[in-house]
Amino acid sequence: MLKGGVTKPGKSRKRRFNAPHHVRRKFTSAPLSPALRAQHGVRSMPVRRDDTVVITKGDRKMTEGRVIRVDPARGRLFIEGVTRQRLDGTTIQIPIRAENVMITKLNLDDEWRRKILERRGYESKRGEE
Prior knowledge:
The chain is α+β, with helices and mostly antiparallel strands.
């Protein structure tokens, strides 16, 4: 018998879409670039405003830009320079899924975020040995 977790796809989707905000924030996680991964010893992090990301999938692939806004309710990011023209001529931001980007530069202005990297990164793994 399986221990914990949900096995039915419908239930998994239901839990994802009805998740509370503090859980939903983790759904906006993206992998770190190989350089950042080697530096910090962390594989992925939730994306924040002012992080620099590269789009890895879709027709905007290899486009790099700064994150302007994160929408955790929809699980989408809005990146500087990733726009399109509407038929009436207005320019709008294109929402991008967080799993389709790679973080190339972390915004470490926040002390809490630095602590998260220390807790999850190489320093904590060195202490375990």
